[in-house]
Amino acid sequence: MVLEYVLTHKPSFPRGKPADDAADDEGLKQIHALSIQGNYELRIDMEDFENSTAYAQYGTFGVGLFSVDPDEDGYPMTVGDYSGNAGDSLLKHNGMKFTTKDRDNDHSENNCASFYHGAWWYRNCHTSNLNGQYLRGQHTSYADGIEWSSWTGWQYSLKYSEMKMRPAREADGK
């Protein structure tokens, strides 16, 4: 299941995915409903403006797994068991609630979603933000693009990212 597909050079969204807290809430509800049905893994595929690609895979993934009321709890993300060639820029966000411009759930004194221009599972503030601004690659601002810091650093906004979840594979590969 594709969770998020950001192809940022589409002319209808020149600065990336539009901010829409209602859409975020609906998407989080759907991810939560799916992730409580079993064990899931997450794969994130990315592409930069030089057409290089990278991926990050997590053998454990879920949203609101241990919440009685995930909306009230802020849809905390569970993620673990990294593999891939992009470097791990998500594990730091493990256990964090989803922050939007109107729901500040991060540990920063500032609202990271407002400061870095996109909703995400921020801590203080981030090592990744796939909902940042579309800044067409190298940029002079700091960490406010579509970022995966372990692969492209803090001043490079990705061209493409896609988050996908599927049932986790058993230890025997099934």
Provide the fold topology.
Blueprint: E1 2-7, H1 21-35, E2 40-47, E3 53-63, H2 70-73, E4 77-84, H3 112-115, E5 128-129, E6 137-138, E7 147-148, H4 149-152, E8 156-157, E9 160-167
Antiparallel strand pairs: 1-9, 2-3, 2-9, 3-4, 5-7, 6-8
Describe this structure in words.
One of its GO terms (molecular function) is chitin binding. Its main location: membrane. Residues 27-169 form the Fibrinogen C-terminal domain. It is a single-pass type II membrane protein. The chain is an alpha+beta fold and 174 residues long. The chain has a single domain, classed as Gamma Fibrinogen, Chain A, domain 1 (Alpha-Beta Complex), CATH 3.90.215. The protein is built from 4 helices and 9 strands, in the order βαββαβαβββαββ. It has helices spanning 21-35, 70-73, 112-115, 149-152, and strands at 2-7, 40-47, 53-63, 77-84, 128-129, 137-138, 147-148, 156-157, 160-167. A 5-stranded antiparallel beta sheet has the order 1-9-2-3-4. A hairpin with a 5-residue loop joins strand 2 and strand 3 (53-63). It is globular and about 40 Å long. The chain starts with a strand and ends in a 7-residue tail after the last strand. The relative contact order is 0.22.
